[in-house]
TrEMBL record:
<dbReference type="InterPro" id="IPR050764">
    <property type="entry name" value="CbbQ/NirQ/NorQ/GpvN"/>
</dbReference>
<dbReference type="InterPro" id="IPR003959">
    <property type="entry name" value="ATPase_AAA_core"/>
</dbReference>
<dbReference type="Pfam" id="PF00004">
    <property type="entry name" value="AAA"/>
</dbReference>
<dbReference type="InterPro" id="IPR027417">
    <property type="entry name" value="P-loop_NTPase"/>
</dbReference>
<protein>
    <submittedName>
        <fullName>MoxR family ATPase</fullName>
    </submittedName>
</protein>
<dbReference type="InterPro" id="IPR003593">
    <property type="entry name" value="AAA+_ATPase"/>
</dbReference>
<feature type="domain" description="AAA+ ATPase">
    <location>
        <begin position="36"/>
        <end position="195"/>
    </location>
</feature>
Amino acid sequence: MTAFPLSIDDTQSRLEALDYVPSRELAATVFLALKLQRPLFLEGEPGTGKTEIAKVLAQMLGRPLIRLQCYEGLDMAGAAYEWNYARQMMAIKLSEGASDADLFSERYLIKRALLQAIDPSQPVPPVLLIDELDRADEPFEAFLLEVLSDFQITIPELGTIRAPAPPVVVLTSNRTREIHDAVKRRCLYHWVDFPTLQRELAILERRVPDAPKALAREIVAFIHRLRQLDLYKLPGVAETIEWSRALLALDAVVLDPELISQTLGVLLKYQDDIAKVSGSEASKLLNEVRDTLRAAGFMG
Ligand SMILES: Nc1ncnc2c1ncn2[C@@H]1O[C@H](COP(=O)(O)OP(=O)(O)OP(=O)(O)O)[C@@H](O)[C@H]1O
Ligand SMILES: [Mg+2]
């Protein structure tokens, strides 16, 4: 286990050392969340590094990552714990005298993510990722409150289990619905926006180091131009990375309209969006992008 970062700068450089390039604001929020031992609540555009930050934090702090992927219908049994009825039945059959106290002991407890995260028998407090909370039903948030505010879970048959040291908690949401204020109040909040051109270029340099500089600039500028269009789903950083890899696989050195049209399926996942950008529109956009780059002094 590694110590928490000492400052915002330290947070930023330690994240960057693991190829995660945060905005200054995100580095500040991460630093404070760790310092104040509060959960980090990240909402934002898809594919902008919300899930990834939890993975990188686990690596940075030398802690295991425990991930709870939320989904419709997720309940306490799926998220925290369940009694192992089959084993309990077996125990009853094998020994006539098994008492309730024996049956409702830790032996028969199936620990799910939330309980694992606060389990006192864990040698190191983990990083707990509660991913895509907006996919879970609203009542699930009520379950979460006890965990998030006191880092404890009460099991009626067993008592209250409390984390000896709080886990680092990261919650994410894609904002398909609003998360309840009571949950948000316990967290530090940050909206993860699309990166600036410079930051996206820095991300690309780290994630796809083989991409020629000129191509990387065109890729990032083109994607920034796409994000200004009225598309059903805008490409995220994940798409920037994927597209760069695809273009490299095709031995591209610079963008051209044909190349763009051939690879749009990496960037855009809706036919309407693809139709809007392919063909002559692609060359028009590319020309605009080149003008912008030239104006910024990036091209001859
Ligand atoms: N700031 C960043 N620095 C480095 N890599 C990044 C950054 N932001 C995003 N990425 C990369 O983009 C990809 C997508 O990130 P991630 O899966 O965390 O997005 P997300 O916000 O969780 O998306 P979704 O909302 O779709 O779940 C990952 O491969 C990640 O490495
Ligand atoms: Mg995610």
